[in-house]
Amino acid sequence: MLKLLSPADAQRLREFLREANYTHEELQSKRISLELPSRGNLAFVLDRVREPSLANLVLRWFFLGVAAESESAAALAPEPVLELMLKCGILERDGSALRPAVMLTPCDEYVFAADTAGRMESHPADGVVWPNPTTRLLQYFTIRRPVDATLDLGAGCGIQAVIAANHSRQVTATDLNPRAAEFTYFNARLNGFENIECLTGDTYESVEDRVFDLILANPPFFVTPTSGPLYCENSMELDQYCRRVAREAPGHLKEGGYLQMVCEWVQVRGEQWQDRVREWVAGLGCDAWVFHSYARDAATYARERIRQTNPAAEPETVKRWMDYYHQRGVEEIHGGMLAMRHRAGRNWVRIADMPLDPGEPFGDAVWEGFACMDWLELHGSDEEMLAARPRLSPDAQLDQQLRQVEGRWQPVGMTLRFTGGIPDSMRLEPSVAEFLGRLDGRQSLGEMIAGLAQRVHADPQVVQRECLAVIRRAIERRFLLP
Hints:
Mean pLDDT: 92
CATH superfamily of the largest domain: Vaccinia Virus protein VP39
Strand content: 25-35%
Distance between the termini: 53 Å
Largest sheet: 8 strands, mixed
Number of domains: 3
CATH topology of the largest domain: Rossmann fold
Number of helices: 19
Number of strands: 18
C-alpha cells in the first residue's frame, strides 16, 4: 500500500528521478516505447539496459518491473533515497532483493505511479492502469484554459487530474475503483500538486449536486459482452455507458462548461453511425463536436479487443463475442472523441475526422473551433461581416497541384490545409486563395472585397456575396480567425 509523501520527500524523489534521467525523452532515446514491453520482447529491452548504472537500475525497476539485489542497488542509488522509496511503498524488500511495487511512467514533465503488470494480471478487477494511448489522446484533446473547477471522471491513477491542476483552481478526481484514489493522491503529491480531491463512486454519483467548468472522461468504453477489468469494460449494453456519461454531463456543467471524452459507439443494422452519436447529444442544451478516428467491422474489432483483454482466449470466447454482435445487429464499432459545451440558445453538432494519434496537443484548436462558431452566430449579418478584420490562421498552408501541359506546368487546383492540430482542408480557386492570403487583420472585409471587385472588374454585389460565403465557411472551419 502506498504512503503519501511529504512535500519535501516528494520533491526529493522527483529530483532523484531526474538525476537518474528517468524521463520520457530518455526512454525514447533508448528506443523504448512507453507501451509496456510484452513477454516476447522483454528480454531484448532488458539487454539494452544491462549495463550497471543508476539510469538502468531505475528503468529496470519502475518500467520493466525487474527486482535488483539490495547490495548492487545500494552501490548505485543513495541510501536515503532507497529508504524513502521503501518507506512510501514504491519499493519492497524481497529477501536480499529490492522489488518494485509500482510502475512509474514518465509523461512529459510528470511521473505517474500505477500498478505493475504483474498486479494487473493477478488482480485485473481493481487494477489501476498506467498511461496508455487513450490517456495520451485525452491529454492532447483537452482545452487548457484557466478554470475554477475540473472533474476527472474515471480518474484511474490521476493523470488527467494532475495535468489539469495546472490550469484549475480545484480538481475533483472520481473513480468506481477505491484504489484509484490512493494512486491519484500519491501522484498529485509526487508531482507537487495540492489542489486535487479524490472521491469514490459510480460515474457522477459522488458529485451529485456539483457543477464544473470542465469534465474530462476516459471511461471504460470497450464494446464487449463481458464486464471485466474496470479500466476498459463496463456492465451496460454496447455503447450505452458512453452515452450515459454524455447525457448526464449537462447536469454537472456550468454555463459555458465543457465535457471532453474519449469514446466508442456502434453502428447497428439500418442506422448510420453519425445518427447514433447525434442522438447522444440531442436536446441536451449543448453544442457538440464529434471527432471520428476509426471504424472496425465487428469481427476485426473482436479480434483486436480479445487480443488486448485475453490473449489466451479459447475459440468459445470469440464465438460468444460474435454472437453478441450478431444478435444486436452490430455491423461496425467506431471510436474517437466528443467535446460538448453547455450553452443556452440554438445548439449545433459537427462531425469531423481526426487521427487517433495526432502527435501533438490540439486543445487550443478545439477551443478556437467553438469560438469561431460563436463569432459567426453573434456577428453573422452581412454588415457585421463586412466590418470584421479576420486573419488567416498561422497554422494554415496552401498546397498547389500542377499538371504538365505541352511541356509546361499548369495549375490544376489549390488546397488550403492545416499543418498541425485538427486536420481539415478546403479546395480553392486561385483567385480565392490569393484573396484569403491577403487577410492579415489590417483591413476590413468590406475594404478587401471592394478592392477585389475593382481589380477583377466585376459587379461588387456579386463579388461580395461570393466572398462572404467563402469567408463564413473558412471561419467555421478555423482557417480564418475573426
